[in-house]
Amino acid sequence: MYRIINRRRVRQLRKMRFWRRRSTDLTKPRLCIFRSSRHIQAQVIDDAKGVVLACASSIEADVKSTGLRGKTMAVKVGALVAERAKSAGVTSVVFDRNGFTYHGRVQVLADSAREAGLQF
């Protein structure tokens, strides 16, 4: 139990380090991700206006129906969020990994979004 609480605390500390740096410059929207044990979600958020510009998730019907899991599902979600962000007029973002380590599904989603045309 202590290890679970400690992991949560470490993740919160990583999030705070990001926000300390991010709070000075809100000119670019951010690509924020959330990873659970089964699904992954990504949003492009404009913090200056407080609105979500684009989002994609592995829970959506068109992603879920493909039957993909794990890293291959993260590739699909990354490409989908990049496509939706470009249609909303966003080409450059700040990557917010939300305290998760840059490894595995998080890294694959970021690489897929870069290949689809988002710059960060």
UniProtKB/TrEMBL annotation:
Question: Which top-rank group of organisms is this from?
Answer: Bacteria
Q: Does the keyword Endoplasmic reticulum apply?
A: no
Q: Which UniProt keywords apply?
A: Ribonucleoprotein, Ribosomal protein, RNA-binding, rRNA-binding
Query: GO molecular function terms here?
Result: 5S rRNA binding; structural constituent of ribosome
Q: Name one GO biological process term.
A: translation
Q: Which InterPro entries match?
A: Ribosomal_L18, Ribosomal_uL18_bac-type, Ribosomal_uL18_bac/plant/anim
- Gene Ontology cellular-component annotations: cytosolic large ribosomal subunit
**What Pfam family does this protein match (any one)?**
Ribosomal_L18p
Similarity comment: Belongs to the universal ribosomal protein uL18 family.
Task: Provide the assembly information.
Answer: Part of the 50S ribosomal subunit; part of the 5S rRNA/L5/L18/L25 subcomplex. Contacts the 5S and 23S rRNAs.
User: What is the recorded function of this protein according to its Swiss-Prot or TrEMBL entry?
Assistant: This is one of the proteins that bind and probably mediate the attachment of the 5S RNA into the large ribosomal subunit, where it forms part of the central protuberance.
Which HAMAP family does the entry link to?
Answer: Ribosomal_uL18_B (MF_01337_B)
- UniProt name for this protein: Large ribosomal subunit protein uL18
Gene that specifies this protein = rplR
